[in-house]
Amino acid sequence: MSEGLFTEDEIKEDICRVMSTLYQKGLISAIGGNVSARLPGSKEFWITPSGIFKGQLSVDDLVKVDLQGNVVEGFLKPSIETPMHRAIYNERLDVNAVVHAHNPVATGLALSGMEIKPITVEAVLTLRKVPIVPFAFPGTEDLARIVAENIAGVRALILQNHGVIGLGFNLVEAEAIVETLEEVALTQLVASHFGKPKLIPEKDMELAKRLYKI
Predict the structure, then answer these.
(1) Does pTM top 0.85 for this prediction?
(2) Residue 10 annotated in active site
(3) Domain ranges of the chain
(4) CA 102 to chain centroid
(5) Which of 81, 175, 179, 182 is catalytic?
């Protein structure tokens, strides 16, 4: 998608929509989770504020921050996770949207030592590999560093004892990653409860990678 196909106003409206959707689906709490997005190639991004009810954000609540962490526009305090978002944008020029949610099933599986497995087509084609990164306190430079060290070539991360991150070229893609991650995690949980999950065979995974060039 080229820069001319959407505007900053549309990005801000989409951030609010995504937050509302995540809240309604139980993937974030009233004041938990955060979302950011930017125009392709921009050195500034819009991010959700800290300490504000996330189910009904307005575009006036959002804050614009540059890649050094300076507030460029907005009146509220940016999310405490701004360092993490900034680190992702500095590392991944192809990423223009970051969704951080608290997916209960995906986070719970990681707490029990279970990685996301290739149990569905979506797990293979949409999520691919989902690393679990070591714990660091939210909002710290340590967390930002750990995420930056594990972000190469992935679409999603699970933050140990914390939540998940979905990355995308735009917000729709990043939102879909987070929702798909929870869907796959729930499927894996059910399968594990009743028996040993049957994984998609390696030969079919390799065929899918060739067919879809992933």
Answers:
(1) yes
(2) no
(3) 3-211
(4) 10
(5) 81
